[in-house]
Design goal:
425 residues; 7-stranded mixed sheet; alpha+beta; 5-stranded antiparallel sheet; Rossmann fold; 29% helix; 11 helices
Amino acid sequence: MGKTQLGSGIGILTEFTDVIYLSDKTHLPGEIRRLLRQKRLSSLLMPLEGYRLIHLRPDLVGTVVIDAEGSDVTQDRRMGRIIETLERDNIGIILLTQRVKCPVRSFSLVPSESSFSMSGSVEAISLDALWARISVNLAYRKEQNSGIAVKLPTTTSAMERHLVKRPNPPAEGTDAISDNLKEQLRLAGLVQRDFLPSKLPNCTEAQWATSFIPAEWVSGDIYDVARIDEQHIGFYIADAVGHSMPAALLTIFIKHALVMRETTNNSYRIFSPTEAIANLNMKMLGQKLSGYQFATCCYCLLNIKTRQLTLARAGHPYPILLRQGQAPRPLETRGSLLGVFESAEFTQTTTQLQVGDRLLLYSDGAETLIGRLEDKNGFRFTDEFLAVQDASITEIVDRLTEIAKTRDIDPAEVDDFTLVGLEIP
């Protein structure tokens, strides 16, 4: 995952960073932090005076976002000096001038044909437009500075982070083969991410948050959140056994085999969760997969008008319902593993959601941070999870993700980590 660091502006840049965010605020805006994380971009928060450090090593900077909220960019001499200096270094600049309080558009950008403008006009842009501008600046940087290797978005895994902490000297003569294999796996990870939803179906009736951290370069997890029609959204997490290339290949099959509705002529029928799960099981069995490959899955169908949630699961951890004023509650329903038994039976349960409810789906790699079902004591939640149970679903997903990224665990226990969260606003 792309790193996001908070910097005090002391010292110099030592490695390439895709996005430098210059601001005298103490933190990145949440929507921008999530955008950079989703796009796998490395980022660094620096105070406005940090532009001097960027000037020392412009070759290590992809693009700069300047938070000028509260500043009159036409009169602020310091802002003009910052922009002029960065322009001389051929660094693309994105100048954010004020917050815009509306559901989709989150910042305003001074419009310009170049990389910045000191004009007084303001035009609101969406996060998608902001991402497009960042992409253009990174591409321009790479084209105009052939000596600068602009780092493309990469898949950083839990295992990679572990290896960075505990490097092992490579065996003689294996460097080239190892590097080639890592590059192939890295590219495979990027292809796998193309099968994840590029945009979540957020609306006034439902808000979503997701996290996806492969244990290695590719993942044995897959998820989807898709609008089926104007009234229904289907979403799931599936977890193939293992967390390397065979498991990753199986997730691609699952992505295409789990069908949410069938269309006949000019009409369609939405599959119930049990039908969707059962159909997926039969398709996996029909492939007669080599080896003993199976998967777990939890599939949910949400009616955003009635707030009715129906779910079925196949050997997957129970989803957790969070309701204000009540203890977290796992939603239990029976179902066998996928790809094992032709006679497998799956049941579904229906829950009436209400305003303020939050639902969390997760893969087994997140169980150590959320909780487990114990034979004698029932479902026991972790202290980390209970500490965030009253937060919004976005904050819950962000906090659990940060803990997962920074915890120090044994390499043998590293597993894929995936979260899909829903909140009824």
